Amino acid sequence: MRGCRGRHAFTLIELLVVIAIIGLLIALLLPAVQAARESSRRAQCLNNLKQLGIALNSYHDKFNVVVPACIADNKPLPVTSIAGQQWTPWTVMLMAELEQQVVTNAFNFDLGSYGPIALKMPGFSANSTVMTTKLSVYQCPSDRSLTCRFTGAYPGPPITGVAMSRGNYAANKGNTTWMQTDVPGNSNGVYRDSPFPNTGNLPFAALTDGVSSTVFVSEMLQGSDGDVRGLPWLTIPGANMYMSSFLPNNDTDILGLSKNGDVMMPGDLCVNEPGRNLPCKTGDLLNGAWINGARSRHPGGVNVLLGDGSARFVKDSINPRVWTGIHSIHSGEVIDANAL
Description:
Elements: H1 12-63, E1 70-71, E2 88-89, H2 90-93, H3 101-106, H4 122-127, E3 147-148, E4 164-165, E5 169-172, E6 215-219, E7 241-242, E8 262-264, E9 280-282, E10 301-306, E11 311-315, H5 320-325
Parallel strand pairs: 5-7, 8-9
Antiparallel strand pairs: 1-2, 3-4, 5-6, 6-10, 10-11
């Protein structure tokens, strides 16, 4: 009777070699998988910007002006320090053009984001429920999705505890500071008009550099806790506007105003997170020299929206002159598209 032949088994060394090979293959494939996912997220982010471009152009078709940076409605009501104080930002005014009519109808535009009574903020109280609504068109999937909660002591009615939704898109505020004023002592510090001036409204015809050569919107990153960066509901420096004095994803502005990231208003409105590309420090409340830059989670650059509704990726290494040039509206620069 013939005996059965024993089955050959893996030795421990052979098993370890197989495990090592599998681990090596996973290590090789993982970056490719992550890159493919980020490519998809970046494409979705570009698509969001294109939707904003359609909405911006639709708003212009209706009213023959670029959507205002904010509404500063100076009504003759009891005001003591901040005139008007409605201060509803462009992101709220654009909601109807983004097919957010239900949210638009629920927003009290008579009171706006703050309301007409200085330091009492009845507009915030009236619209706080709307401000918790998350709008996917304002959300870049490459960034974390956070809410904003104020925790400091504020005068007037309590505004702490409201978990306002955030977003990732900011309007081009110009090349100097949030106040859009000249910066003395710097040859590049003369304010060049942006599509979103602090006062007045501009038609496309006023942009003599051409809407296809002018950046309207770029990306910004969402701050945490009470940090206002990425907040579409309030007109606060750094919330939903940015300055081209910072190159993309850079923490040193070209005007020499800051070497440590964004300059925000005092208080808990700035949460310094340099490890997450969100460096910031608090500035003087009175001088208005607040600045913040365009930032994203995409490796090597940011997505931007041009006035004609097209969107493209701009590298961090863009020439400062080109970056400043595509953010002004009638400076007469000749910009080569290959320089972007």
